Amino acid sequence: MGEMAQFNLILLGPPGAGKGTQASRIVEDYGVPHISTGDILRSAVKNQTHMGLEAKRYMDAGELVPDEVVIGIVKDRLQEPDTANGFLMDGFPRTIPQARALDASLADLSRDVSRVVAVLVPDDELVKRLSGRRICRECQTPYHVYANPSQREGVCDKCGGELFQRDDDTEATVRNRLNVYAEQTEPLIDYYDEQGLVARIDGQQTPDKVYEDIKAAIGPPE
Ligand code: AP5
Ligand code: MG
Ligand code: ZN
User: Fold this and answer.
1) What is the pLDDT of residue 79?
2) What is the reported pTM?
3) Lining residues, ligand 1, CB within 6 Å
């Protein structure tokens, strides 16, 4: 018997590129779990766990949380049975050591990364997007006050949850997040290019068009 086709996907891109926006669509259509290290960390902050209190200092400054913490989170998450046929990583890996750790964890499971979707958007546009972003407290769906408003102000269209602004979406923190991305995360595009895995997507189109290009790159849902 051959192995089941795996769908081990990574969404890469700068802060505000639309990873969360596209992830909602992908997980709905392809039936894989959404693994967002940012969402997991924010939930730890909200629950005031030891890890959350530790991570918050880095997140509020727009710095990366240390590799060993984030790698531990993802390793644990990959033990959950819902990841058996695939996953969508959003915001992980973000450094070369994280990418190597993911490769090693997957190799232990006789798996590998299937495709890396890099959603690319220029910095000026990213600053605009993040300063107007609002997020659902319940289901994490992102909105934008001008570009992508909810039907009722402050209320999530999908679940009725309350919309809020992230603590790290202030202009100074956003600028630092963009620098950190350029220094530590962008090199991952070369890392995965060497494995022939990267699909570059123009993220400066409408969310629908971006999603069409992603589907073309990863193949239509079954
Ligand atoms: P994380 O939560 O991963 O944030 P990020 O990478 O900075 O990305 P964002 O979530 O801000 O943007 P997005 O690409 O999801 O865009 P969205 O779809 O919301 O990480 C936060 C922090 O956690 C890090 O800084 C770090 O401290 C820590 N962390 C997380 N993972 C880590 C790791 N692996 N290692 C170490 N530390 C880690 O869209 C943005 C806005 O644009 C929205 O308003 C949306 O409505 C709008 N929009 C989306 N698409 C479009 C479009 N096509 N046109 C117009 N507007 C659009
Ligand atoms: Mg996000
Ligand atoms: Zn919601």
Assistant:
1) 94
2) 0.93
3) 13, 15-21, 37-38, 41, 58-59, 62-65, 70, 91-92, 94, 98, 129-130, 132-133, 142-144, 147-148, 168, 177, 206-207, 210
Query: What is residue 171's predicted lDDT score, i.e. its pLDDT?
Result: 87
pLDDT at position 2, please? 37
CA 135 to chain centre: 14
Q: Can you tell me the distance from the alpha carbon of 86 to that of 181, in angstroms, rounded to the nearest whole number? A: 26
Domain residue ranges in the chain: 7-32+85-122+178-218
Sheet strands (E) in the chain: 7-12, 34-36, 86-90, 115-120, 133-136, 142-144, 163-164, 198-202
pLDDT below 50 — which residues of the chain? Answer: 1-3
Q: Which of 216, 196, 168 is nearest to 112 (CA)?
A: 196
Task: List the catalytic residue out of 94, 111, 129, 134.
Answer: 94
| CATH code of the domain made up of 7-32+85-122+178-218 | 3.40.50.300
